[in-house]
Each structure stands twice: as structure tokens, then as C-alpha cells.
Amino acid sequence: MIGICIEAGISCPSCENSIPLNALVPSIRCQGCGEDLKLSLDNWKSVLEEAIKSAPSYGEGEGSNLNIFGSYNFKVVYGRQTPRYDDTKDSIDTGTLLANIEAGKILHPQSGAPTSIRRMPEQYSEVFKGVVALVGEDLKLLPGSSEKQSLKTASSRPVAFACPNCAEYIPATMFDCRCFGSYGQFQTGKSTFLLLA
After folding, report:
1. Residue 175 CB neighbours (<10 A)
2. Extended beta strands in the chain, E state
3. Is the pTM of the predicted complex or chain greater than 0.85?
4. What gap in Å lies between CA 117 and CA 97, rounded to an integer?
């Protein structure tokens, strides 16, 4: 079995905010404007298909990136990499992953921090044949999570400043521009891994 690391993001069509795609889910909420973006099977196919096709031929640690333009604009960075525990460089043994797949998460042996693991959801399994597991998705975004995705809110008084993208004055706290994200840096998501048979 091999691992494919995926980091993906989408640009909100309403406010142009960069949204990390941290889980294979049918919709995701824009943190800038609150719009729920519906992600169809075809959208996910656009995001994942090239990585699933190309990455197995790469050496460990090699990768590529692509920009996808269409009904949504996506940025995808992918490569061949053994799955890792969230926020670490510690690899997860394939046997350990498979032994914990039904539990929905695996705990880091030293810190005890959870990393998600699940089988490919049924509605995607026919299209993404050979994918045995999804590792490292954002637990808050997964179906059945007790934590729901919410909009970021500022607790301090907003300050007006000019957006570097459009020069419009907007209320902002700590330079968090809702229409342009982090000063034009298109954000991809955290590392999520596909485990291929």
C-alpha cells in the first residue's frame, strides 16, 4: 500500500475567500461570507483524480500541484508520502492504520492527539477505486461530529482598513480580510492522506 498526500483549497465564488478543503465532504462553509458550497462528485473527481493517477509513479516525497478552473476554482498540491499523524512528521504504520479504521481515529503514541481515519465513503468509492482509507481529515468536518463548522467571529472592536485586493474599506480585526484571505495567498488545506491498495 502507498500513501498520497493531498492539500487542497477552493476559492469562494461569492467573496473570493480561500477555503481549505480538509475533508471529503458534500459541502463546506466559507469562513468569509458564510456561504455553503456544495461539492459534487464531479468536483471531487476534479480535485483528486490526477493525484490518484499520477502520485503512485512518484518516489516517496515527490509531488506536483495543479490549478483547476471551472464552476469552482481549486488549487491542489499532492504527492507520494506515507500517512502521518496530524501536525507531526511522524509516519503511521499501515498495519496500525488498518487496525484502527473502524474506530474513526488513531492516537499519536506519545502525545495522544487524534488523527482521523475512515474508509472511503460509499458515495465516492465507485469513482475512487483502490482508495482504502482517508487519513488526517479535519474531525470537525466529518459526518457525525459533535463540533459543527462555524463562522469565525471577532471579539474585539473592528478596525477599518483597505483590502489589498480591491482597495475597498472593510471592517477587519487583526488584518483578517474576508474577501481576499491572507493577503492573496491562496490557502490549501492541511495534509490529508489517501491510502491506496
Report:
1. 10
2. 2-11, 18-21, 27-29, 36-38, 63-68, 73-80, 105-107, 114-119, 131-135, 159-162, 169-172, 192-196
3. no
4. 7
Distance of CA 112 to the CA centre of its chain: 22
pLDDT tens-digit series, residues 110-124: 999 999 999 999 999
Which own/partner contact pairs does 165-173 have at CB distance under 8 Å and 24+ positions apart? 165/16
Furthest C-alpha separation in the chain: 54
The backbone torsions φ and ψ at residue 97, rounded to the nearest 5 degrees and listed phi first, read -60, -50
Give the C-alpha distances (Å, rounded to integers) separating 8 from 39, 51, 70, 127. 13, 11, 15, 19
Backbone angles phi, psi at 100, to 5 degrees: -110, 5
